[in-house]
Amino acid sequence: MKKILAIALCIACLLCLAPAALAVNEDVTGEVVIYTSMYPFVIDMMDEALKAEFPNLTPGNNGSFFFYGGTGSLQTKLAGEMETGTLGCDMMLVAEPAYSLELKEGGWLHAYETEAAQNLRFDYDKEGYWYPVRVCNMVLAYNPELKTPDQLPKTFKEFAEDTSLKGRISMGNPLSSGTTMAAVASLSDKYGYEYFTALGQNDVMIESGSTALAKLQTGECDVIMILEESVLKERKDNGSKISCIYPEDGVILIPSTVMTVAEEKSKNLNIEACEAITDFLLSEEGQKFMVAGYMHSVLKGFTEVPFDSVDTDGLIEKDMGVDWERCYKQREEIRTKFQEAVTIKK
Known about the structure:
Layout: H1 2-17, E1 31-32, E2 34-36, H2 40-53, E3 58-59, E4 66-68, H3 71-82, E5 91-94, H4 97-105, E6 131-142, H5 156-161, E7 169-171, H6 178-191, H7 194-201, E8 205-206, H8 209-218, E9 223-227, H9 228-238, E10 243-245, E11 252-260, H10 271-281, H11 284-292, H12 312-317, H13 324-329, H14 331-343
Parallel strand pairs: 1-3, 2-4, 2-5, 7-8, 7-9
Antiparallel strand pairs: 5-11, 6-9, 6-10, 6-11
Helix pairs in contact: 1-2, 2-11, 6-14, 7-14
């Protein structure tokens, strides 16, 4: 009940922040379904915001505009739908640009040139097939009640190679998590596939973020690789002391994209609505919801940061970067190398 009340209060506060932006799209009608990997509590906020902004637009998924799934599960779902020639959605908000490159190449996307593009501080498709809409940040995390910073790695490299941590480190699964896939692509690009070998030799545990956070609390793990947003949410919601380590060899920023499905391949054939929603998501009002969801804004000059986080522009300066073309073109090779070194028991 407390969480429901907290979400309701957050929605009310955010809607009050931008009254001028609300209910200005009364002429946008029809239905829309959006596939997304955003956290369910963020979806709840965005649903209410879109219903206020587009009062005559119908949520196409049982009263919600959104269908939720992890990036990996959504990719599997979409692969099945592609066989029919029509997708079950009109828009997508998934974890990283590599999948956007694949969908664009396959002819599944609609190009839209939004005026918001000129105000973006992250790369976007110059033809308008995809835009960054929220920024996830891969970091390390630890429990300061059990460990001090001098006992822990200061870099992603040390995370994998420090043998004193053997069996006491954890991370996500790149086969199911788009953000983890982006992270391992970046790290293997920087350090070679030897990075995966080091992770395997250090007996890294592959598990969900919630499980990893629980193990930090109990002391079963000393340090974990995780999205900053998961740590920040835990700190705010539960008063946790779990803290982020922003690695000295670079954070890994992962701009999640918004895409519109090509009209003839979409569920509701509603391009006008999708373009209007894109504009809203990339507006200052729309970005406030992303920050409230513990993610960073994609807009230049946007000074608000997620709860307990650090300056976004400062993070950009320390960004390790991801070769999205390699992440797409060599996806299966990267996954196979990771499995061979880390997840396959020999």
